[in-house]
Amino acid sequence: MTTFADLGVPEKMLSTLRQGGIVEPFPIQRMTIPDGLKGRDILGRAPTGSGKTLAFGIPVVTRAGSARPNHPRALILAPTRELASQIEEELKPLARVMNRWILAIYGGVGYGGQRSRLAKGVDVLVACPGRLEDLIDQGTVSLSDVSTVVVDEADRMADMGFMPAVRRILDGVRGDAQTILFSATLDGDVSEIIRRYQKNPVRHQVEDQQVDPGKLAHHFWKVEHPERIGVTADVVGRTGSTLVFVRTRHGADRVAKQLARHGVSTAPIHGRRSQSQRETALERFRDGRIRALVATDVAARGIHVDDVACVIHFDPPENHKTYLHRSGRTARAGATGVVLSLVQGNQARDAKRIQRELGLPVGIHRANPTEFGDRVVFETPEPTQRRDGNPRGRSPGSGNRRNGNGGRPRHGNNGRPAKSGRGKNQHRKGNSRRRRNRQRGGPRS
Predict the structure, then answer these.
(1) CA 216, CA 351: separation in Å to the nearest integer?
(2) What is the C-alpha end-to-end distance of the chain, expressed in Å?
(3) What are phi and psi of 376, to 5 degrees?
């Protein structure tokens, strides 16, 4: 068995890895770490959950020198805040034992803390392109000392329109910098990055996760639009920790609220949520306080959570690659998992095409949540209480309606709607006339 010591990992890191329960390197780590430690340019392809963060992170942290203020020595580019934050958290213990500072910078949070830490010196900088360029323009960051740069998930960078910024950033690092690139695809803008910025890169590849009937149970159910929330809540109650994928940010918020009405503890995660909201949602999902996390594809790109029991394609994936990427969030580390697609009538053709492309049995079946076991009975959430003992949003005696008027809408003018804007103005004029009379000592009406 190959060990991390055999790959040349420093002894200080070995003890930290062992403390974290990381003993045997994954295939992409066995391939990549020795070349990374030698300073070679690397072109890697590896799916989510393959261990690629340590594959490039161990060489980056090992080779990074001590930085001057505002001049990082190593740079890791990531497409999303979640991924940047996750890379920082995974590499922080290794950086600590090597006496190196690591920092992740991204949008959605203030500049103050990031500027302050950079001014003290950051050896390894993890960054989203947009925030990094902002700080470069402000004179807070210089890339002139960067000797190692990593572009993680370059294909997603291209999909999100970051490639012009990535090229500008790579133009700012040292000309002899080691360049490590990981991408699911190597065409288009990604191929240009390889051609312009890598020198005879060594290629290492781990195949994308293939459908493994022994680990992933794939289900395609015919569920029409009005039934989707009820079926989803039922499945979550039977399977446990579940990732629910939707296409839009608005859809994520809507589905999370609707699931909550069914008693499912849930939270949305997408680009319009603040960083603190996203981190809180992930933390609560990891420790089991949230049973369902509703995510868009872009926001989920950086999510790494073990022990996900089920993935639900609430909205259909764009293609079989997106299907695999979503589905790969479950059945990790040898565990089993459930993948469920909710298919409406007009989506059946596309769903069958994905099945054929993945070699799955072709067919859409009737929904049958009972095959996932017994359901947890969720409690309907009670409205929060005010100090007067009444539910928030309700006044005493208001019944089921917030307007407290027996279900009839309230109006001004003694409960009668004003006939026109002119009537309202006349009412105001009357009030003004009475005030003038009182000031003059005249009669009160």
Answers:
(1) 17
(2) 98
(3) -75, 130
Domain match, 292 and 340 both? yes
**How far is it, in rounded angstroms, from Cα 125 to Cα 60?**
10
Q: Which tokens hold the place of 241? A: 């920790």
Claim to verify: residue 239 and residue 303 sit in the same structural domain: yes
* 3-class DSSP assignment, residue 360: coil
- What was the pLDDT predicted at 383? 45
Instruction: Confirm if 74 and 146 have CB atoms less than 8 A apart.
Output: yes
Gyration radius from the chain CA atoms? 28
- In degrees, rounded to 5, the angle at the alpha carbon of residue 85 between the alpha carbons of residues 83 and 91 is 100
State pTM to two decimals. Answer: 0.64
Mean pLDDT of the chain: 83
Q: What percent of the chain has pLDDT over 70?
A: 79
DSSP 315-328: SPPSSHHHHHHHHT
Looking at the fold, whether 237 and 119 belong to one and the same domain comes out as no
* Residue-number span of the structural domain to which 345 is assigned: 216-372
Considering the domain architecture, whether residues 191 and 305 belong to the same structural domain is answered as no
Residues 166 and 196 sit within 8 Å (Cβ to Cβ) = no
- Sign for the CA dihedral angle at 274, 276, 277, 278 comes to positive
The total number of structural domains in the chain stands at 2
Of 154, 155, 212, 184, the residue nearest 330 (C-alpha):
212
Would you state the pLDDT for residue 82? 81
Q: Can you give the pLDDT at residue 400? A: 40
Token pair, residue 24, equals 């045997």
Of 352, 292, 285, residue with least CA distance to 316? 352
- 3-state class (DSSP) for residue 217: strand
* Residue whose C-alpha is closest to residue 336's, from 208, 172, 212, 185: 212
Q: Is the CB of residue 34 less than 8 Å from the CB of residue 79?
A: no
How confident is residue 49, by pLDDT bands cut at 50, 70 and 90?
low
Short-list 38, 105, 47, 50, CA closest to 77: 105
Report residue 260's pLDDT band, with 50, 70 and 90 as the boundaries: very high
